[in-house]
Amino acid sequence: MVYDRYGPPDVLRVANVAKPSPGVNQVLVEVAATSVNLSDWEGLTGTPMYARIGGLRAPKRRVLGSDVAGRVTAVGSGVSRFRVGDEVYGDNLSLLGGFAEYVVVPVAALALKPAELTFAQASALPQSGAIALQGTAGARRGRRVLINGAGGGSGSFAIQLAKRAGAHVTGVDNAGKLDFMRSLGADHVVDYATSDFTRLEPFDLILDLVAHRSVFAYRRAVARGGRYLCVGGTVRSVLRVVTVGAALGVVTRRRLGLLVARNGPAYFEPIAERCLTGELEIRIDRTFPLDRAAEALAYLGAGRALGKVVVTV
Known about the structure:
The chain is an alpha/beta fold. The chain has helices spanning 38-45, 119-123, 126-135, 153-164, 178-183, 215-221, 235-252, 265-276, 293-301; strands at residues 26-36, 67-75, 87-91, 102-106, 110-112, 144-148, 168-173, 188-191, 203-208, 222-230, 255-258, 284-289, 308-312. The strands form two sheets. Strands 1, 2, 3, 4, 5, 12 and 13 form a seven-stranded mixed sheet that branches. A six-stranded parallel sheet has the order 8-7-6-9-10-11. Helix 4 (153-164) links the parallel strand 6 (144-148) and strand 7 (168-173). Helix 3 packs across helix 8.
């Protein structure tokens, strides 16, 4: 599924392209499943503007999809960790290309897929799991944690992680996701259309997956000694958090900042291990075949996804 310009899902089209070849420290993966992330939606639409880094007028890469799972079919020079036939999964954020039959992936981005997980389940973990794990690192017993955008992919893991850590968890999303957030363990749920979470009682930790409010509202929502972390949102909101928010934090002892989530097996394999023990659940809302990847992106972009959306090949 390729695209040549930013726009809505209908700019995507099916195309026959040459099978890629792995380079040094890369492998070629025959894709079985690729999960859809907010980063894919942003890369498709070119919004916010930081999604256009490397390609201001047109996309730098013609094929989206970073969270891939499949089988190794060829290895490049210098590769010793994987062999042809290995089942692998990982976050190919640097190269993308997962919405295709084959994709080249750096060895450092991949891990062996646990046999107990399906390809679809494995593809749901890398990016969302890594963000949730790092974003909820400060959750613990007795702390009040709020997750904004809690009904999506990263949010569904974040609710579970914060709850397992013993925190009191509030999930914020649209009205169609309230029951879903409760089913994940949220103690309190909020419909953002009818209630402003920044006017609730202060929280010790806020993980904001869709930042768009005033930095002063965020400061108000954080308890003294607490922390606010945003992952994505409008350019204006993100810039104000990392500038004005940082300054306010020094003065008020309320830390406001941007979560620059690290990726790679060290950050998603711990999530997989906890899924295997039954401590965490992988919630996949819908799967779409590759030629309907545009529908998958539209479904996610409309804010309807309860957990993860996966494209299968």
